[in-house]
Amino acid sequence: MLIVVYIALAIFITIYTDGFFSAFNIGAILGLGSIMGFLVLGESLVMLTGGIDLSVGYCAAFSSVITAWTMIAFKDLLPPSLIVALLIVLGIMGGAFIGLINGLSVAKLKIPPLIATLGGYGIAYGLAEFVFAGIPTRLEIESFSAAVRVKVFHIFPISSILLAACAVVLSLVLWKVKFGRYVYAIGGSKSAAFLSGIKVDSVLIWCYVLSGIFAAIGGLLLAGWMRVGDARAGGGYEFIAITAAVMGGISLFGGEGNVWDAVIGIMTLQTIRKIIPHLRISTFFEDGIVGAILLIAVLVSVVSVKRMRAAA
Amino acid sequence: MNEILLRAENITKSFPGVRALDSVNFELRKGELHCLVGENGAGKTTFVKVIYGAYPDYDGEIFLNGDKIRITHPLQARELGIAAIQQHRDLVPHLSGEENIFLGMEETKGIFIDRRAQNERARKIVDRFDKSIGLQVPVKYLTVAEQEIVAIAKALVRRHRILILDEATAPLDRNERKVLFDVLNEMKREGDIGIIFISHHINELFEIGDRVTVFKDGKLVATKDIKEVNFDDVVQLMIGQKERKRFTKKKASLGEEILKITGLSVPGALSDIDVSVRGGEIVGVAGRLGSNKEKIAEAVFGLVPITKGRVFFNKKPLLVKRPEGAIRKGIGLLPIDRREEGLILCRSVAENVVLAWLNKLMKRFLSVRLINFMTRDYVGKLGIKTTSVNQRVEYLSGGNQQKVVMAKWLTADADLLILLEPTEGIDVQTRWDIYRILGELAESGKGILVISSDLEEIVALSDRVYVMSDGRIVEELKGDKIEYRHIFNKTISDGTSGSERRGA
Questions:
Q1: Which pLDDT score, from 0 to 100, does residue B363 have?
Q2: What is the pLDDT at residue B249?
Q3: Nearest residue in chain B measured CA to CA from A178
Q4: Residue B496 pLDDT greater than 70, yes or no
Q5: How far is Cα B122 from Cα B137, in angstroms, rounded to an integer?
């Protein structure tokens, strides 16, 4: 469904603009698109359980700051390759930590996900700001950025290939592994899942932790892509991630949708964001347009749910 | 066959002000289908809820296969092999039948779920009942009967040995019932399963039951072999020696016709309903659960679409699309779920009492003193037991909460009060208080429409009674004709309600 929309959009763009789909533009869409795609994977996972994760943006920012910090802190102590290995571990741990706070708040303290992850959002932002007093900091290791910016066949950024690999694994887990089916079961009916003996709490906690980890991976790549660690880099990404997931058909009520469509969702959204200046629309409208898309996507999903209920 | 699977001794369960179960002694044998019957509120559902763990704070003892157990939670009950079949709670709508059946106990090959093995096993179980059920489509696309069968299959895979079906046939049509009965018969053949079956269709128990236990007023009246009893015996046990307890109100002279409903039809719920209420009159609408009697109130309040028929209020056509329209015109509603729909629990008595009256008060700023004064007046008149008018409503007992809802409509000066199950879950003393208040309201010229499944209440209160069954009015009774046994027989549907409703 969304893929059809995307093809129509692409045809429209090709006709209307002159050479928008250059290798450079495609690379740019895929680059930032796939970085945000990691946030979308995590967001989708949480939304499938019927929750929402507002912290993904600043989770990513937090890990981007960790990236810059690790490079400075271990500059003279370790060889660059080990530093990169270390920053990946630390960044992911940072994301997992925020995710764990979210997960525990939702599953154990029974705080509504919207509020619980708003807390996670604040904590992540606060930690990210704290490290460099909010100042964007250049990455010390140039080769890390260079690696992130490598384009396979001059068109596919490394991040897009990584995203594809992660999406394959995640969708396999969601379809074929118990954990994945439990995610859908909890999103579809918490009571049925619970009465079937599923450990609902631990599945929920894992989903939020995984969301934090995916966001952190996005943050590491984002730091490399931008060549800085910036506490504000991920601001507003939660909004884009949620929009993309809803566009991709992840139900707001949980239990329905798949991560592939959500990935197509972020690519569509990223294309639209990229095209805005080409259509001579002020880029200041960008968030407004994304907001309108979010509302339309929600409307479509709610209307289709209602129609299905009426038919049943 | 006669081995005892489950024994319950002296089970007692009380709610504030009401003893819902009183020293119930019950036995379930292996391989039997044991029917529970009784009127609404007789205690049968409360009893099975104790058995499947929904009410952990019961008194008494339960033995499973001779071992004493304490049932504290639905999940624990399931682990012991006791499960209530409730397709809407058991099944995840978006998952397929196969996935639902194996949810939480998947067959795996390595880390992956072995879908083929699961499907084979699921198919084998379900095919015994119905080969046509699709197990690969989300269960939300199955019919209710098919969902029930999937839920039963789910219980069988888990080797649950005691299955509880509470009103499982209510949403089914005649053919679907037949399929379900075949399933149940097939399960009895397995020998070590016991089934507890609740239905308000008394004739169903003669189709599939082995024994029947009758509940009345929270007590177990009798357990009989189905072969030893006939339909009338069961009915007699259910209603016992009922004398007509009549609430006596002064004979008020009847006023103008306040509410008149003619030829009202609501798709799938009501057909051709004629109801009228005059000032000074208490009119009862009697009917069992599933007779859709409550839809009359919903239609008047614009909550369900009216396809045919008209509603007149004070001689003028009433066209409302939302409740506020009806309220503005002077109709008050006491909903079934007073805690959810009738009250704002976390606010004070005073705030609740003036809620529907605020529109008229809107001219200036609210006067707290006036509000409190008015509320105190009603607290006194209706005998609402509360520490103060500022007490939060949630801390009041059920009966006093209901009185607050009544006060709300009295302040709003409604001409007509529509009450749904007005005394459900309310203790006897308060119940008669409410009847007295309703009587006084009628005497003051208001019209009262009481929609209730509690026939004693209908008999006690009403000047006139409409008896409903399956979305139609089957009889109108007046004065001395209002007689318990007669209404009871009229309200029992013949077990075809589902199909009729679907056909409508």
A1: 62
A2: 60
A3: B113
A4: no
A5: 13
pTM: 0.80
What is the rounded CA–CA span in Å between residue B7 and residue B27? 5
How is residue A54 written in tokens?
A: 């507002």
Q: What is the pLDDT of residues B179-199, one digit of tens each?
A: 888 888 888 887 789 999 998
Looking at residue B499, its pLDDT comes to: 37
Compute CA distances B73 → A182, A195, B6, B28, B92, whole Å. 21, 10, 17, 20, 20
Sign, CA torsion B353/B356/B359/B360 = negative
Give CA–CA dist B173/B41, Å, rounded.
25
A191: nearest CB among B89, B94, B103 = B89
The interface predicted TM-score (ipTM) is 0.84
Average pLDDT over residues B452-479: 88
A190 touches chain B (CB under 8 A): no
pLDDT per residue over A58-82, tens digit each? 999 999 999 999 999 998 899 989 9
- Please give the Cα distance from A217 to A159 (Å, whole number): 10
Residue B417, φ and ψ in degrees, nearest 5: -115, 130
Say how many CA atoms lie within 13 Å of B225 toward its Cβ: 3
Mean pLDDT of all residues belonging to chain B = 85
Residues A250, A257 contacting (CB under 8 angstroms) = yes
For an interface test with B, give the residue of A189, A199, A251, A258 to mutate (most B CBs within 10 A): A189
Contacts of B92 in chain A (CB under 8 A): 184-185, 188-189, 192-193, 255
Q: What is the pLDDT of residue B103?
A: 92
Q: What is the 3-state secondary structure (H, E, C) of B104-139?
A: CCCCEECCEECHHHHHHHHHHHHHCCCCCCCCCCEH
pLDDT of residue B385: 85
Burial of A157 per CB tally in 10 Å (0-12, 13-18, 19+): buried
Residue spans of the domains in chain A: they are 2-12+42-311
**A contact test, residue of B85, B92, B106, B118 with most A CBs within 10 A:** B92
Strands (E), B120-243: 162-166, 194-198, 211-216, 219-225
pLDDT (0 to 100) of residue B247? 64
Confidence at B359, pLDDT banded by 50, 70, 90 = low
What lies within 8 Å, CB to CB, of B95 at 6+ separation is A181, A184, A185, A188, B103, B138, B139
Query: Which DSSP category does B480 fall into?
Result: G
Place of tokens 């991976």: A217
Q: Is A197 on the interface with B (CB under 8 A)?
A: yes
Q: What is the pLDDT of residue A310?
A: 60
Residue B75 CA to residue B56 CA, distance in Å, equals 12
Cα separation, B167 vs B264, in Å, equals 28
The first and second tokens of residue B26, run together, are 């019950």
- Give, rounded to a whole angstrom, the gap between the first and last alpha carbons of chain A: 22
- What whole-number distance in Å separates Cα of residue A300 and Cα of residue A303? 5
Q: B107: buried, middle or exposed (CB in 10 Å: 19+, 13-18, 0-12)?
A: middle
Burial call A168-177: b when 16+ CB within 10 Å, e when fewer: eebbebbebb
Decide: helix, strand or coil at residue B416. Answer: strand
DSSP per residue, B9-27: EEEEEEETTEEEEEEEEEE
If pLDDT is split at 50, 70 and 90, which confidence band does B17 have?
A: low
Residue of A nearest to B112 (CA): A177
Domains and CATH numbers, chain B: 4-239 (3.40.50.300), 252-330+456-504 (3.40.50.300)
pLDDT tens, position by position, B317-344: 887 778 878 888 888 888 888 777 788 8
d(C-alpha A262, C-alpha A245), whole Å: 5
Q: How far is A188 from chain B (nearest CA, A)?
A: 5
Q: Which residues of A touch B90 (CB under 8 A)?
A: 192, 195-196
